[in-house]
Design a protein that fits this description.
Shape: globular
Number of domains: 2
Order of helices and strands: EEEHEEEHHEEHHEEEEE
Largest sheet: 3 strands, mixed
Radius of gyration: 20 Å
Oligomer: single chain
Number of strands: 13
Distance between the termini: 32 Å
Helix content: 25-40%
Structural class: alpha+beta
Number of helices: 5
Strand order of the largest sheet: 1-8-7
């Protein structure tokens, strides 16, 4: 029942892409979004779709699609929520909810909407799949306690085309407590997500205001820092890219380890 944050960021090459027409006929039927727009024949007024149905409907469809494409349809249903959690873009909590009579227990995948405005749909959906990998391990693997990302989870992530990295870049550590990922180019997730986006699935609403600006500032700060590691004793320091640092104990230069 541990919380697993995707808490640093996702680095990808692609840019924001609008919803596309001409959906692939291979996209599964579960992806159909209910058109809940209404029309008043008396006044001739058309009411827009309900934001709640539109927002969660797309995520429910995305979950079903990725479950089929990347997990062979093995994952049980879960409750997808929006939760603001500082420092995390998403988290998983096993068996968090139950029906009122407790006859049914379900897991939670939470997505943090504060970062939606500064990330494209592919990056946001990769966080959903990151948490789906935690859900897979919860039911079929052996998760470590206290939100630790272990080797089994890392192997599953690589299998579905998301590469674990504590920096969100190639070369980062693949196990640990604070972990994110980057998208493997032309990997299973990348190809599946491209098909899903062509179908018209999208992140319909993004948060406005101070939280959005704060996320942008935090992202710029994170990008301006690099980790340097001593190959002798493992000492880590953080600083601007290009600095030269020497470990006084080992008398060896620290090597940049964030890329």
């Amino acid at each position: 029942m541990a919380i697993h944050p995707d808490d640093i960021g996702t680095n990808i090459v692609s840019t924001d892409q609008p919803a596309r027409s001409g959906a692939s006929n291979r996209v599964c039927a579960e992806m159909t979004i209910v058109d809940n727009a209404s029309y008043d024949a008396n006044s001739g007024r058309e009411f827009p779709q309900n934001p709640t149905v539109l927002t969660y409907g797309h995520f429910v469809a995305a979950y079903a699609f990725f479950n089929a494409r990347l997990f062979a349809g093995s994952l049980p249903g879960c409750l997808i929520t929006m939760q603001r959690k500082k420092g995390a873009r998403g988290f998983f909590h096993g068996e968090r909810f139950g029906s009122r009579d407790q006859a049914e227990i379900t897991d939670e995948i939470a997505l943090n909407p504060t970062s939606f405005a500064v990330r494209d749909d592919r990056a946001i959906l990769s966080t959903l799949v990151h948490e789906m990998a935690h859900l897979w391990q919860h039911h079929f693997g052996k998760p470590s306690g206290a939100d630790y990302h272990n080797r089994e989870w890392a192997a599953k992530m690589q299998n579905i085309g998301l590469v674990p990295s504590d920096t969100g870049m190639p070369g980062g550590r693949q196990t640990g407590r604070r972990m994110t990922h980057y998208i493997q180019a032309d990997g299973p997730f990348d190809r599946a997500c491209e098909e899903l986006l062509w179908s018209g699935i999208l992140v319909a609403y993004v948060q406005r205001g101070d939280d959005e600006r704060g996320e942008t500032v935090r992202a710029k700060k994170a990008a301006s820092k690099s980790r340097y590691t001593c190959a002798g004793c493992g000492l880590n320091v953080w600083g601007k890219p290009g600095i030269r640092v020497i470990c006084e104990s080992c008398r060896r230069p620290l090597l940049r380890s964030s890329c």
